[in-house]
Structures are given as C-alpha cells and as structure tokens.
C-alpha cells in the first residue's frame, strides 16, 4: 500500500461521525442510518454530476430555444422549503411568458408557451434541479418540495416531509401542479 493510501486509510479510520443520537462512533462501527446517508449523498453527487455533464448539450439547446421563444431569463427560480424547512432556491427552465408580475392577471394556462408545454410534458424543465442536488439542497429521492406559503397548513404528520431533503417526484409519478 502506498503512502497516500495509508494516509487516507488513517483519516477514514479516525473519522468520527454522529450516529442517531448515540454519541460519536468510529467509522468502523457506523450505524446503518449514518452509512446509508453517506452512501445516498455520494450517489446523489455522482448521478447529478454525470447528469449535468452528459446532458449539457441538451441544456444548451433548451436554453437557446427558451431565449429565442421567450427571451430572458432562461431559468425560473423559486424559494421552497427544504430540509428542516430551510429555504432553498429551486432552479427550473422557464416555461411561461411574463416576469411573474402577471400571475394575478393571467392564468397559468394562458401564460404557458408551446415550448414550455413541451418541456413540461417530458419533464425537461426539471433538469436544472440537478444543480440543487449537487449543492446538497435536494436529493434524487425524497418528497416533492411544495411552496413555502403552505407550511402553516401542514399537520404534524405532513410536516415530517421536511425531515429529509426534497426532490420533485413528478419525474417518476407524472404529477403536475
């Protein structure tokens, strides 16, 4: 074993990780929940990085199409409650006309463009959320992040959704809001 490998092995062996309120344990004795969280985060980083790299040509095509069809901005940003209700800014490709000030004036259906409808139909508007996954604000597996204004309406059971990092399940369930 090389000297770099020995150094890494020593660092890992001496790492102390919190584990389910039972104090701090050595990595060799890490409980299942903590190890699962570490593996989940590693998987999130790997898949989000690969997805952003592999899909970068598609990102450029979509961004160009939005810029031509709707102008700027290309991205839609919205603050939503994340892990432990901490606000995170969800990033999506823009699918509607207007700057957001017209929300009261026109219905979503009237503001949705043909390109936006196509992007939503294939969930391509959700792809920039891989950036949120890479930043650690979201996970590839988790509850859909709802709007902040609904927080006060949650029952204690519904509020448990914020005990994990969110992700938009519409990619898997076909639900649209």
List keywords for this structure.
two-stranded antiparallel sheet; alpha+beta; disordered C terminus; 177 residues
Strand content: 5-15%
| H/E element sequence | HEEHHEEHHHHH
Class of secondary structure makeup: alpha+beta
How many domain regions? 1
**Tell me about the biggest sheet?**
2 strands, antiparallel
What average pLDDT do the residues reach?
A: 76
Helix count, per DSSP? 8
Q: Gyration radius, to the nearest Å? A: 20 Å
Alpha carbon gap, first and last residue: 54 Å
Helix content: 40-55%
Low-confidence stretches: 168-177
Major beta sheet, strand line-up: 1-2
Shape: flat
Give the tally of β-strands: 4
Describe this structure in words.
This protein is 44% helix and 11% strand. The longest helix is centred in the N-terminal third of the chain and has 23 residues, at 32-54. The radius of gyration is 20 Å and the shape is flat. The chain has one domain. The chain has 177 residues and is α+β, with helices and mostly antiparallel strands. Strand 3 (75-81) and strand 4 (87-93) form a beta hairpin. It is built from 8 helices and 4 strands, in the order αββααββααααα.
Which helices and strands, and how do they pair?
Layout (H helix, E strand, L loop, with lengths): L2 H12 L1 E3 L5 E3 L5 H23 L1 H15 L4 E7 L5 E7 L14 H4 L2 H8 L7 H7 L20 H4 L10 H4 L4
């Amino acid at each position: 074993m090389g000297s770099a490998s020995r150094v890494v092995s020593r660092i890992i062996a001496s790492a102390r990780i919190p584990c389910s309120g039972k104090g701090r344990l050595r990595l060799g004795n890490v409980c299942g929940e903590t190890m699962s969280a570490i593996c989940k985060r590693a998987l999130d980083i790997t898949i989000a990085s690969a997805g952003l790299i592999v899909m970068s040509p598609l990102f450029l095509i979509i961004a160009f199409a939005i810029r031509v069809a709707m102008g700027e901005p290309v991205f839609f940003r919205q603050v939503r409650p994340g892990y432990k209700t901490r606000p995170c800014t969800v990033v999506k490709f823009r699918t509607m006309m207007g700057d957001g000030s017209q929300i009261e004036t026109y219905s979503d259906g009237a503001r949705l463009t043909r390109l936006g409808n196509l992007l939503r139909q294939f969930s391509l508007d959700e792809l920039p959320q891989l950036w949120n996954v890479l930043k650690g604000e979201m996970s590839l597996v988790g509850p859909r992040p709802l709007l902040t204004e609904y927080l006060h309406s949650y029952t204690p059971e519904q509020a448990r959704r914020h005990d994990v990092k969110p992700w938009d399940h519409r990619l898997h369930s076909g639900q649209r809001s």
